Amino acid sequence: MNSSNFTLQESYCSYFNDVRDFYLPLHGYTSLIVCLFGSVANLLNIMVLTRREMSSPTNAILTGLAVADLLVMLEYIPFAWYTIYKATSPSTKELYTYSLTLCIYLHSNFSQVCHTISIWLTVTLAIWRYIAVAYPQRNHEWCGPQKTILIITSGYIVSPLINIPLFLAFSIQPVTKTLNESGYITDNASVAINTTIYLIDVSELGQKNDNLLIDINFWVYSIVIKIIPCLALTLLSGGLIWALMQAKRRRKQLMQGSKKTPRNIENDRTTDRTTKMLLAVLLLFLITELPQGILGLLSLFFGRRFFERCYVRVGDIMDILALLNSAINFILYCTMSRQFRKTFSLLFRPRWLPVAQTENGINLNHTTTMVTQV
């Protein structure tokens, strides 16, 4: 990389410095709050979506997504505590012990696997919903319960395999540093103590063949895990909007000259609400994932210096965006899905409260659910 390119990168990345310096002291507390809320929210999602009256292929995918997001939340809580602890300026000797470094290494790998599962299921959700709207007559054949369970299970199996280059590219390495009596790095030889600390760095395997494995890791992360899913979701979201408009047009043509029944009106509204809610889920995913993919791709082209000087500087900000993405679905379901709200209220309604009834006195506990309803 020539000096002009490096200067350009430094100038571009310097815009992130002020934001990073402002947010960095807040990250530990902010991420801890988001993770605590997200853990409860995703647990509630699982409890509601697995109810018998909520059974459908779409809700099965949303359940698998909630499980992956719950794992992300629970796993990130110890790392949030570590971030808070790091902000108290502990000594180098205390901060870089083998056990703490091992926890960080496991955190980076496990969180990436869970996040890949979420990406897999989000793309699947978009495909399933597009088929439901564009090809309703083939929906049960192409997106039946067995195929849905198979694709969910595949996501949990394939995602760790996709991330194998990440596991192999980095390792925990002992490094000897000169520390003072308090455990901080020093240049004063008179009070120096040689101490072994542990850092995560490129492994021996990652350094072979001119860092080939590192390049493969960036390609997998940027292209396979980020860019391709984002492009797919963009196309599917556009196709879903177009298919929804076409379906409305067809329904309008079919109903011309005939009176619409309340059942038909409610079915149309249910389909529209479900599709709009899932579009919100997809768009939220794009907002949080696409910037990471672009920065990862730039790191591949500009080299490790760009990764260290640019990508890492906004790492905490991208982390909190990803955590918000994993935590906020509960709010989307509650605000955009009447069936979710109804099931949630029935599930957590105090037993001493009377059961809501229709005008005909029918118990709402026995309402049925459409297959595509959320």
Task: Walk me through this protein's architecture.
The protein is mainly α and 374 residues long. Mean pLDDT is 82; it is low at 1-6 and 358-374. Helix 2 (15-49) packs across helix 3 and helix 9 (204-255) packs antiparallel against helix 10 (262-302). It contains 14 helices and two strands; from the N terminus they run H-H-H-H-H-H-H-H-E-E-H-H-H-H-H-H. It has one domain: Rhodopsin 7-helix transmembrane proteins (Rhopdopsin 7-helix transmembrane proteins), CATH 1.20.1070.10. A two-stranded antiparallel ribbon has the order 1-2. GO terms for molecular function: G protein-coupled peptide receptor activity.
Main sheet attributes: strand count, strand direction, barrel closure: 2 strands, antiparallel
Any idea what the radius of gyration is?
25 Å
Q: Using the alpha-carbon principal axes, give the shape.
A: elongated
What is the number of helical segments per DSSP (H or I, 4+ residues)? 14
Helix content: over 70%
Count of beta strands: 2
Number of domains: 1
Mean of residue pLDDT? Answer: 82
Q: DSSP strand (E) fraction? A: 5-15%
Helix/sheet category? mainly alpha
Order of helices and strands: HHHHHHHHEEHHHHHH
User: Can you identify the CATH class?
Assistant: Mainly Alpha
Distance between the termini: 51 Å
CATH superfamily: Rhodopsin 7-helix transmembrane proteins
Within the CATH hierarchy, at the fold level, what is the topology? Rhopdopsin 7-helix transmembrane proteins
Which second-level CATH architecture applies?
Answer: Up-down Bundle
Largest sheet, order of strands side by side? 1-2
Low-confidence stretches: 1-6, 358-374
InterPro entries: 7TM_GPCR_serpentine_rcpt_Srw (IPR019427), GPCR_Dmsr-1 (IPR053219), GPCR_Rhodpsn (IPR000276), GPCR_Rhodpsn_7TM (IPR017452)
Family: Belongs to the G-protein coupled receptor 1 family.
Protein name: FMRFamide receptor
GO molecular function: G protein-coupled peptide receptor activity
